[in-house]
Fold this sequence. Notes:
This protein has 123 residues and is of the alpha+beta class. It has one domain. It is built from five helices and two strands. It has helices at 2-19, 28-38, 40-60, 81-86, 111-120, and strands at 66-77, 92-103. It has a two-stranded antiparallel sheet with strand order 1-2. α3 (40-60) runs antiparallel to α5 (111-120). The longest helix has 21 residues, at 40-60.
Amino acid sequence: MYGLALRAICLSVAVSALSLGPASALTLKEAVGEALKSNPEILSSAENREAVEFELRQARGLYLPTLDLEASAGGRKLDSPGRRRLGTQDDSLDSADVGLTFTQTLFDGGARRAEVKHAIRPV
């Protein structure tokens, strides 16, 4: 009885081992690569690092000058007794303005430096 049970167990193990097919093994490099691609904690950490680096670039950008362009256009029609006497009440007044402003901060009391230090801390 004992020998028959042992044979049955060995036979079932052999059959199940044959039905599994070839084993697939990953190299250490492949396993690490798969973990980096699929682990949510690692992906979240990478996204957080990217956000912190963006904030640091933004803080360092405070040292750069700014250039602003503003433009406006419009028209008016004025009607007044004086314009009626002159016969210009139907003339329209058209205006167009363009402005370009270059700004460079010379002194800010250390605010930019503090902003950069604050952005560097999480990195």
